[in-house]
Write a structure and sequence with these properties.
Shape: globular
Helix content: over 70%
Largest sheet: none
Distance between the termini: 12 Å
């Protein structure tokens, strides 16, 4: 895996673990049709010093992963959710395996996204990287609610986005 793909994955895990971020991401995914991995990619681009996306850049990133997302990630997600809802006796093991496969598929999706990322500018101050991350987030989600994600990015900016660059 490339350094950029590894950095994107680490960044994603760190952001997703912040208070309130996971539920906010799921609302954006399930009620606003947003891809959580693309959302995290948008934030990472700014946070890592790779700058701001424009509409064409966002469209290109989305197109790079649309097929994989629709044909692989979303079916695995649907299967995992169905296993959880069915709650058959002794289904915990298969649920855990389905979740692991879904995460592996998402990691490959993020690898595809990272392959299209520009080289970071490590000389950008944290304030600029935060502004870029927030601008990229808003470009992708519009006015949809994202306060926990914004808060997580602000908190991470206080430590100069320690895991973002690569």
């Amino acid at each position: 895996m490339s350094d950029a793909a590894s950095a994107l994955w680490r960044f994603s895990l760190e952001v997703y673990a912040c208070p309130g971020v996971a539920p906010a991401c799921l609302v954006l995914q399930d009620h606003h049709g947003r891809d959580v991995n693309l959302l995290l990619f948008c934030c990472w681009l700014g946070a890592s010093g790779r700058g701001r996306l424009d509409g064409a850049g966002l469209e290109a990133a989305d197109q790079a992963v649309t097929g994989w997302r629709r044909e692989v990630v979303e079916p695995f997600r649907a299967a995992r959710r169905a296993i959880k809802v069915a709650a058959l006796p002794d289904s915990d093991g298969i649920y855990a395996k389905a979740k692991a496969v879904e995460l592996d598929a998402e990691r490959l999706l993020q690898r595809q996204l990272a392959a299209h990322a520009p080289t970071p500018r490590i000389d950008l101050p944290s304030e600029q990287r935060l502004a870029d991350a927030l601008a990229n987030l808003r470009l992708y989600i519009g006015d949809a609610p994202a306060a926990p994600i914004v808060d997580a990015l602000k908190t991470m900016a206080e430590t100069d986005f320690a895991t973002a660059p690569a």
